[in-house]
Amino acid sequence: MKPLSRLLLFFLLALVTSVIFAVTEHSETLSRAQWPEEVNGTNISAIPQVRQILRLFVEDENITLEIHYPNDDMGKQWAESLGHWFVTFGVPIAYVKLFADSDATDQIVIALVDRR
């Protein structure tokens, strides 16, 4: 293999590896103020954090989409609604996990986590 070909192969492998790791470890914070009053597919898909998570999500048995929400009834309803929307947008339900452990009472953290 020529030196230039090896260099190109090394560069491509480094690029692919960095993209994979960037995709599998990412989080977004969503505040209650950003949640639309009228909840529908158009309004939910317009939320930048939701779009970013959907853009980065990959189906991999080691990846989970975690929703960390405030530990109260309102937080649980909010997280369940958001989780259902991710499923509606194509994320398999087995990948979506809800956790009642958000530090803030008015925020949800959405995370793509690699469990390897």
Task: Using brief descriptors, characterize the structure shown.
116 residues; alpha+beta; 60s Ribosomal Protein L30, Chain: A; 4 helices; 4 strands; globular
Description of the structure:
The protein contains four helices and four strands; from the N terminus they run H-E-H-H-E-H-E-E. The chain has 116 residues and is of the alpha+beta class. The chain has a single domain, classed as 60s Ribosomal Protein L30, Chain: A, CATH 3.30.1330. The longest helix is centred in the first third of the chain and has 22 residues, at 3-24. It is globular. The relative contact order is 0.21. The model is unreliable at 7-24 (pLDDT under 50).
Q: What order do the helices and strands come in, and which of them pair?
A:
Blueprint: H1 3-24, E1 26-31, H2 41-45, H3 48-56, E2 63-68, H4 73-88, E3 96-99, E4 107-114
Parallel strand pairs: 2-3
Antiparallel strand pairs: 1-4, 2-4
Tell me the helix content. 40-55%
The end-to-end span amounts to: 34 Å
Briefly, what CATH class? Alpha Beta
Element pattern in H and E: HEHHEHEE
**What general outline do the C-alpha atoms trace?**
globular
Give the amount of beta strand, in percent. Answer: 15-25%
Counting DSSP E segments of at least 2 residues, the number of strands comes to 4
